[in-house]
Each structure stands twice: as C-alpha cells, then as structure tokens.
Amino acid sequence: MHPAFAVGLVFAGCCSNVVFLELLARKHPGCGNIVTFAQFLFIAVEGFLFEADLGRKRPAIPIRYYGAMVAMFFTVSVVNNYALNLNIAMPLHMIFRSGSLIANMILGIIILKKRYSIFKYTSIALVSVGIFICTFMSAKQVTSQSSSSENDGFQAFAWWLLGIGALTFALLMSARMGIFQETLYRQFGKHSKEALFYNHALPLPGFIFLASDIYDHAVLFNKSELYQVPVVGVTVPIMWFYLFMNVITQYVCIRGVFTLTTECTSLTVTLVVTLRKFVSLIFSILYFRNPFTLWHWLGTVFVFLGTLMYTEVWSNLGPPKGQPPKEDKRN
Fold first, then answer.
1. Are 184 and 61 in contact (CB under 8 A)?
2. How far is Cα 290 from Cα 91, in angstroms, rounded to an integer?
3. DSSP 121-175
4. Which InterPro entries has this protein been placed in (predicted)?
5. Which of 88, 112, 158, 178 is most buried, by the most CB atoms less than 10 A from its CB?
6. Angle, to 10 degrees, between the axis of helix 90-97 and the axis of helix 294-311?
7. CA end-to-end span of the chain, whole Å?
8. How many C-beta atoms surround the C-beta of residue 109 within 10 A?
9. Where are the chain's structural domains?
10. 128 in Cβ contact with 118 (< 8 Å)
11. What is the pLDDT of residues 277-327, one digit of tens each?
C-alpha cells in the first residue's frame, strides 16, 4: 500500500472516528463501555478470521506475554472512554491524550534509565505547560457552567477532578504498555497485526463485568430516534448508526496507523498522528461549538509545538546524515 494512501486512511478514519464518538458521548455521556466493547468485538472477529486463520495459526509471541499487555490495554481503553462521563469535554480529552510524550519520557527515565537532550526536555516542558493551561481553564469552565448551588458546583468540580485523575492514570498506563510492547518486539520480532488481534480478543471476557451497563445503553440506543441510512435505505435507531460508524472508522484508523509503521519511519508516523490530532481538535471545536478560549488555543499550540520539537522534525527534513543532497539533474 502506498504511504500516501495510508496517510489518507489515518486522517479519514481517525478524524471521523472522533466525530462519531462525540455524537455518541453528547447524547449518552456514559456510553463508553458499549463503544469500547463494540470496537474490541469487531477487531477481534476480523483478526480471528484473517490474522489467526480461525485459530489455526500459532502466535509468534507466546500467549502468556500477551496477558500483561492485554490487561493494560483493556484498562487504558475503558478508562479513557469512561472519562467522558466525568465532566471531561472532548477537546480537553484529545489534548490530554496528546501528552503521551510526557508519560513516555518519565517512564523511560525510571524504567529504562534513558537520558535525553536538553532539546527534548524543553519540548516536554512545552507539552506540560500546554496541558496545564488547558486543564486549568477547563476547571474554571466546569465551576462557572455548573449550577449556582454551591453543592452542585463542588460536585461538578469533584467529578471533573476524578476525570483528570482517570486520564492521567490512562496516560501513564499506556506509556508503560508501550515500553512492555517494545521489549517484546525486541525479543520476538515485530508482529503488530498479531498484537492488535490478541489485544482486542483476549479482553473480551472482561466485559462480562460491564454487561449490565452495556445492556442498559443498548436499551437506550434502541429508544433513540430512527434514522434512514443513505444509499442503503435501511431505517435504524440513530445511536446504533453512530456506533456502527464509530467502529468502522476506528478500524480504518488503526489499520492506517499500522500500515504507516511498516511503510514509513517512526518520525513520519508520529508527525502524521500529531497532525491528525490537531485536525480532529479543530474540527471538534468548530463543528460542535465546544467552548474554547484564547488560553485553550495557547495551550494547544504549546502541546503540538512541543510534540513536533520532540520528534526533531525540522532537523530530519534534509537528507540523512552522511548522505549528500541530490544534485539537480535539470542542468
């Protein structure tokens, strides 16, 4: 697959996925569990058919190593989606998750004993300041938009604070999972499609503990207004249509990122994903008219500028080190 087509998949899949997730969360803020279950089920079925060959293909990485990875991946996915039910707006949700570089650096220093250049420490400081600004301004909005009752205001702020804690926990857990996955790939080789399948298939029994919540939201989805799907002409409850589109776009997004990792350098992948997050953020603000002040914009600029600095994109735009620039053959 051509890299340009993979980039198109990432932007089309991931950006549209955010739109359908926000449509779901705006109508039923607590629907994170049913969304996560649907995404896991779809990718697990697809992987069982095409990657695991109906269970006949033995995994390259022993199953026991997937246990810890799956536990972390399942926890991160559930906590991230559930945070939307804790007074966390979608723009703040996206900005906060863009701070993964901070978590990766912190755990890299602690676990892998890594050391970084001053340039990278500066970029992480920018990301940290940007997230702090957006978080602080969102906290002010939560308290100001809540009821005039002092108890209601405190309760709204307490739920928001819990949501920030959940996002922080998911951020650190995701970074730890990345380090663990990197260690496995170094030992057994890179098997991204296999890891994608097992990360989604093995956690499925865990949704039994969330069955009651998933069933309740399925009932709510059935009661939503009817919607006639274009082209097909089938009429379904609109929430099920949003969920179906969210699952499909999530799959397109993940496959696009996977293709990029096999066709492009890690720098290119990081840059594309960063730009995708920025486009998703801007679209969410403009289309859904999410409250976003000048301070939010400043924080956003810090986050993405720090991310680009961390990838050292400017120093990598020229020819590789030790390779002279190509001559102009037109003369």
1. yes
2. 7
3. HHHHHHHHHHHHHHHHHHHHHHHHHS-SSHHHHHHHHHHHHHHHHHHHHHHHHHH
4. SCL35B1-4/HUT1
5. 88
6. 20
7. 34
8. 12
9. 3-141+154-315
10. no
11. 777 777 777 777 777 788 888 888 888 888 778 766 555 544 444 444 444
33 is written with which tokens? 């569990």
Q: What burial class does residue 327 get, using C-beta atoms within 10 Å of its C-beta: 0-12 exposed, 13-18 middle, 19+ buried? A: exposed
Please name the amino acid found at residue 91: P
CA–CA distances in Å: residue 288 to residues 21, 25, 299: 12, 12, 20
Two tokens, residue 145: 């938009």
Of residues 268, 295, 301, the one with CA closest to residue 282: 301
Amino acid making up residue 161: L
Q: Is the pTM of this model over 0.85?
A: no
**And the tokens for 128?**
């940290």
Q: Phi and psi of 224, rounded to 5°?
A: -70, 165
Determine the Cα–Cα distance for residues 60 and 84; give it in Å rounded to an integer.
36
Contact 63, 192 (CB under 8 A): no
